[in-house]
Amino acid sequence: MEKIVSRLARGYALAGLILSLSSSLFAAEVKQAKSDGAVAIIDTHAHLIRGYRRRDPLPTGAALRAMDGHRVEMAILLPPPFPPDHPGIYGLREIAPVARANPGRFGFAAGGESLNPMIQRIAPEKVTPDSIREFQQEAEVLAKAGAAGFGEIAAEHFSSGRGNHPYESARPDHPLLLALADIAARYGMPIDLHMEAVPRDMPFSRRPSGGRNPETLRENISGLERLLTHNRKARIVWAHAGWDLTGERTVPLMRSLLEKHPNLTMSVKLDESGSRPTSPFGSDDGLKPGWLMMLRDFPDRFVIGSDQFFDEDTERLALARKFVDALPPEVARVVARENARRIYRLETKTRG
């Protein structure tokens, strides 16, 4: 009897070991399948470099490797919103050849190097018919060059303290921005707008370290609404949802604007330097219910825009991957990829 019990015990132990190994192998297979099945991302807002020196090569290879590492199918490259006469300005001339040499991997937007300096240089009350005509001509050049959008344009842009990341401010309903909305509508090109949320005049107590920023911020949401209503056929992509330096880009604010303005889209960026209360992720590292509900209610109004600089570490790209992987599959496909193809007309650009 003891021998039988001993044999049974050994049999159960062996069966347990087999089940344990099988479970481990199954878990590994599931993990691998989940990784392999990750939804591909189209990143609508990425930068090759911060500032450009003409003798330096562009980090195209590094960008492609970083994209492959985070399953980013395609990235739309655009210049930062440069101020007037800023050293290191680059744009259409440098980015367009990279996109044309890598079809299907890169698209490009432009205007941060040309349109944005004009908006920053000319006060709204100083805009003349001649300046509008000059601005329109430059925008037409970008559209006819095959740009997927206009950007990056700054309405409220805080300085990080770096020499090539200055403070910039312009009314969202600046006459030149309204003129750009008309051109964007005509060509079906979105405007990529960098604007920190300021729902009321307020002191700015959370200034980035070392940055030369104002002590008082002026309300800008009403100006954004005037831009949105100026031409309903103009698509405005309000950049950097999820990364907020005023603490005011809340889910209720974003929902109210999305409900009122069908031509408003938002691109999602994550960075540890942003405001925690307005981040999509909670303290448990899961998506906040308010964010998830907003994405479910407006699935066609969000895209990914990592704001990755490919000459730096790729933390922002990794966080974009984390965000997409946290979404329900039916939302992830639309937000990570399908909306970008539609809004930026990427199928047309690829075929062209």
List the helices and strands and how they pair.
Elements: H1 2-36, E1 41-47, H2 60-69, E2 72-77, H3 92-101, E3 106-108, E4 110-111, H4 115-121, H5 129-144, E5 150-157, E6 168-169, H6 175-187, E7 191-195, E8 202-203, E9 216-217, H7 221-230, E10 236-241, H8 251-260, E11 264-268, H9 289-297, E12 302-304, E13 308-309, H10 315-326, H11 329-343, H12 346-351
Helix pairs in contact: 5-6
Description:
43% of the residues lie in helices and 15% in strands. The chain has 352 residues and is α/β, with parallel strands linked by helices. Strands 4, 5, 6, 7, 10, 11 and 12 form a 7-stranded mixed sheet that branches. Strands 3-2-1-13 form a 4-stranded parallel sheet. A two-stranded antiparallel ribbon has the order 8-9. Strand 10, helix 8 and strand 11 form a beta-alpha-beta unit. Helix 5 packs parallel to helix 6. The radius of gyration is 24 Å and the shape is globular.
- Major beta sheet, specifics? 7 strands, mixed
Helix percentage: 40-55%
Q: Which of globular, elongated, flat, extended, rod-shaped describes the shape?
A: globular
Q: What does the radius of gyration come to?
A: 24 Å
Global mean pLDDT: 88
Count of strand segments: 13
Distance between the termini: 81 Å
Determine the number of helices (DSSP H or I, runs of at least 4 residues): 12
User: Could you state the order of secondary-structure elements as H and E?
Assistant: HEHEHEEHHEEHEEEHEHEHEEHHH
- Strand content of the residues, in percent? 15-25%
